[in-house]
Amino acid sequence: MNDSGQTGFTLIEMVCVIALIAMLAAVLLPIAPRQTSRSRLQAYALETATLLKADRNAAIRAGADVSTLVDARSRAIRSGVTSQIIRIPDDVRFDALLPATCRQQVALSTISFFADGMSCGGTIALARLDTAYEIRVNWLTGRIEIVPR
Predict the structure, then answer these.
(1) Cα–Cα dist 78/110, whole Å
(2) Overall domain count for the chain
(3) What CATH number should be reported for the domain holding residue 129?
């Protein structure tokens, strides 16, 4: 008995379908928005705390004031000692609570560290969907901590 009315797919049909899916993926993946993951948000908080700690340590070692620039408008944090810049992506909410004055001088978007380890303090908040971190700088001790919110 010869069954010429078989149903199913041939190998060439399967290869064509897979090739079409691959071409669509190649076109659509670069267009898809890349969103910041929870772990990447945590990494931004750690990088920020590390940069602040490095600036504090440099101020103590050099015996001189060091100021870290926190520019919420351009979404960047710049080290006062090295040329390191941390850029925060657009899909992350970036807020900074910084002092208006520091040691009777205008502070203008900076967190300042002093030779004795103290600071004028400040808080940087990074948030994305249901995850948020605050990087807090204690004004009295200069201690930097990351607090999940």
Answers:
(1) 9
(2) 1
(3) 3.55.40.10
Q: From CA 140, how far away is CA 27, in angstroms rounded?
A: 54
Long-range contacts of 135-138 (CB under 8 A, 24+ apart): 135/45, 135/48, 135/49, 135/52, 137/52, 137/111
> Which residue in 53, 49, 69 sits closest to 61, CA to CA?
53
Q: How far apart are CA 97 and CA 80, in angstroms?
A: 18
Could you tell me if 144 and 118 are in contact, meaning their C-beta atoms sit under 8 angstroms apart? no
Question: Can you give the pTM of this predicted structure?
Answer: 0.77
Q: In the chain, which ranges are E strands?
A: 66-71, 76-78, 85-87, 93-97, 101-102, 105-106, 110-113, 122-128, 131-137, 144-148
Query: pLDDT by residue (tens digit) across 29-88?
Result: 776 557 888 899 999 999 999 999 999 999 999 999 999 999 988 999 999 999 899 999
Q: Say if CB 55 and CB 68 are below 8 A apart.
A: yes
Inside any domain, residue 8: no
Residue found under tokens 């659509």: 28
Which DSSP string corresponds to 104-131? TEE--SEEEE-TTS-B--EEEEEEETTE
Dihedral sign computed on CA atoms, order 121, 84, 105, 101: negative
Domain span at 58? 38-148
